[in-house]
């Protein structure tokens, strides 16, 4: 049967769209069940000693010695006797080193007394700029690095939520998303929608299609002066869970609406992703101009808005692409040190992992060509580590 026949049989365009949605939803459910068997939820793989050394800064020799001396907890081993560590094992080892190692506080890089919660919005006006890819990889990397992380999905398309193994259109059709904490009628505490993930130290406030209602409701609220205004709603929601996290990473929708503005106004810092092409850079320039005008108007009404940092990340970068290299150089010449030195490379490893809602930290290294995986890990880790230094500087700490 052709697509035209299907449309005629369905009786209307609306019925055809609904039928297609139902078939796709069913197929996606089956795909996810097959991907995550034997459990219906995703599970995080274990990490080898080399990965633990890179994540914690503990040398391989010290790792072995500490195990032999009984300082570290027993961990799983493979058939060859090599140790395999869960994310919780890595966290336990961090705390041992914090108590007994030299410069122990370095093993716990999160907030200390007097440090404020860092709320980081990842934004761009254009879709396809790797916002979600960046958000999920940073959130996971920082959780593995020892931070307590909350990921907030502020995009009604809910791609970030899907990456964590949820089916938003099914599981959150009746509620349970960040919208419930932002809505104007009977909002719930943010903690009521936050969910633990299969990543130790990483929680998520999921999104769903209902979040799109926030735009319409906010327009109505502004007309009727409903309180608190959209400029404060996410910030107020975050106050309730502020003590539970070191970092909040927000994946914003690709438009400058009330949802994005709510995120920006609750943030302590911004990371703007940009693909180094003329069209993408032009789109980003438009986004910045619109954002600047909007924020200027808000400042006139509510006072100065200040962020600890604003950084740009060159994403989906192909070093061998001459026009891309030229455009990346152009960006750096204009925006100077606001552009992170490390770019996020375009890689088949990321796209292949995404087919099963996984990241490069989740995939089994044995399933990927080592050279390909090493290359993208070096890129993503480089971005995360450089941006981590920016976060640490916002807390008044110097990093090597």
Question: How would you portray this structure in words?
Answer:
This protein has 400 residues and is an alpha/beta fold. It contains 16 helices and ten strands. A seven-stranded mixed sheet has the order 6-7-5-8-4-9-10, sandwiched between helices. Helix 1 crosses helix 2 (13-36), helix 6 (131-144) packs across helix 16 (370-394) and helix 11 crosses helix 12. One of its GO terms (molecular function) is DNA binding. InterPro entries: AAA_dom, DNA-bd_dom_put_sf, DNA_Partitioning_ATPase, MerR-type_HTH_dom, P-loop_NTPase, Plasmid_partition_RepA. This is Plasmid partitioning protein RepA. Residues 49-97 form the HTH merR-type domain.
Q: What's the level 1 CATH class of the largest domain?
A: Alpha Beta
Residue runs with pLDDT of under 50 for 5 or more positions: 6-10
The name of the CATH topology of the largest domain is Rossmann fold
CATH superfamily of the largest domain: P-loop containing nucleotide triphosphate hydrolases
Radius of gyration: 22 Å
Total of DSSP H or I helical runs spanning 4+ residues: 16
Shape designation: globular
| Mean pLDDT score | 89
- CATH architecture verdict of the largest domain: 3-Layer(aba) Sandwich
Beta-strand residue percentage: 5-15%
Helix content: 40-55%
Largest sheet: 7 strands, mixed
* Helix and strand run: HHEHHEEHEHEHHHEEHHEHEHEHHH
> CA-to-CA gap between the ends?
63 Å
Number of separate strands: 10
**How does the helix and strand content classify structurally?**
alpha/beta
- Structural domain tally: 2
- Major β-sheet strand ordering: 6-7-5-8-4-9-10
GO molecular function: DNA binding
Organism: Alloyangia sp. H15
Domain AAA: 118-294
Protein name: Plasmid partitioning protein RepA
